[in-house]
Design goal:
It comes from Nothobranchius furzeri. The protein has five helices and 28 strands. It is mainly β and 388 residues long.
């Protein structure tokens, strides 16, 4: 019996034992096998084991419009560090930019403005002129987040601006007495943290905070749980308070703290939920840590140390096996495979004598975007390195 004569369900089970190269070669045998092998179902198990294919740990497909075979090919480049570097944007004044990626639009904050640049559908290059510009702050934009209908920004002027993505500023939230360092928003809920040592709970329908929480330390990072019932704050760790604390949204009460051995000054600069129970953190103590809220809050379940003892400003994840981190020196970006303890790949983006931190990272299926003090860097992982 020929391979093509097997029932499809049996053939599918056979192909689950093949790797990417073997599947690629098999697809070249005949037209019928080519059509079958190229089905997403054949590649899904393999894709879940690879880096940044868009298949999350719970099986959700983030990029359903891109064939899984192509994503697995690109994933090999992420693993091996094969990419092409470019500088889509440069500016003269040193800034602390922030990024958000929404489909084919990359948003970047530059001083008091946020600009949205369309990415070319095929080349993925930024178009020269921004398609959207959001303004209104009297100082620099510190952070901003996106929803389907709004862009919400936090500024050094102490204000939070809720911009309608259809045009105009629809709401100005005032209450913080110093710069608003961090911000998160989900389903109409807004959490902000400030240098004024408070965290505030807001909604899109009110001009004043629903709750103000005294943190007794500068707040560097916040993240809302996917369940919307709690949020996490990361502080500077300059006072006698744990820098990572979880709060109940309704009662504004501290539920618990994470960790027990942070040294003084080990502030938390970025927090990222991967699921309702798992979150990643990084900061001045040079570690990326993974916490599981179903287990003991005293210890993280995994940690990865920056080899050169540099502060970690930001993290991103593919929702499965890969973490990207941005360091404080020389624009260093590292890729980590969660199944390993050592760094997988390292990219030094800043070639200037003056060092710059990586302030923000964003990922697509094929690109990594990094915001440094005076430039936006892009790493394109779509390079052709195999014949399969």
């Amino acid at each position: 019996m020929l391979l093509t004569q097997l029932p499809e369900d049996v053939l599918y089970q056979v192909l689950l034992y093949l790797g990417a190269k073997d599947l690629g070669r098999l697809s070249q045998v005949s037209k019928s096998l080519h059509g079958f092998v190229n089905r997403d179902a054949v590649w899904k198990k393999l894709a879940k084991e690879c880096l940044n294919t868009g298949i999350t740990r719970n099986g959700t497909d983030i990029y359903p419009d891109i064939p899984l075979k192509e994503r697995v090919r690109i994933a090999q480049n992420w693993f091996n560090g094969v990419c092409k570097s470019s500088l889509p944007l440069k500016w003269k004044t040193k800034l602390l930019p922030w990024l958000q990626l929404d489909m084919d639009v990359l948003y970047i904050s530059q001083a008091a403005h946020i600009r949205g640049y369309h990415l070319d559908r095929d080349s993925k290059k930024l178009r020269r002129s921004p398609s959207e510009i959001y303004s209104g702050h009297q100082g620099d934009v510190c952070r901003f987040v996106l929803s389907d209908s709004h862009l919400i920004s936090a500024g050094s002027d102490g204000n939070i601006l809720v911009h309608s993505r259809r045009g105009g500023v629809s709401l100005r939230l005032s209450g913080h007495s110093q710069e608003v360092n961090c911000l998160d928003s989900k389903d109409g809920l807004i959490i902000s943290g400030s240098r004024d040592r408070t965290a505030r709970v807001w909604t899109l329908s009110s001009y004043s905070p629903r709750a103000t929480i005294a943190m007794f330390d500068r707040v560097w990072s916040v993240a809302i749980s996917p369940t919307l019932s709690s949020f996490v704050t990361g502080t500077a760790c300059c006072e006698n308070f744990f820098p990572l604390r979880i709060w109940d949204v309704e009662r504004s009460a501290c539920l618990c703290h994470l960790g027990s051995d942070f040294r003084r000054g080990a502030g938390v600069l970025d927090i990222l939920f991967e699921s309702p129970f798992q979150l990643l953190t990084c900061g001045y103590d040079t570690f990326v840590r993974l916490w599981d809220l179903r287990l003991s809050p005293q210890r993280c379940v995994m940690e990865w140390e920056e080899p050169h003892d540099s502060t970690l400003y930001c993290i991103q994840t593919d929702g499965n096996n890969m973490i990207a981190s941005g360091s404080s020196l020389y624009g260093v970006v590292r890729l980590w495979d969660k199944r390993q303890t050592k760094c997988l790949q390292v990219f030094q983006l800043s070639r200037d004598a003056a060092s710059s931190p990586v302030y923000c990272l964003r990922l697509s299926s094929s690109h990594l975007y990094a915001a440094l003090a005076s430039a936006l860097h892009s790493l394109d992982f779509r390079q052709n390195t195999t014949s399969s």
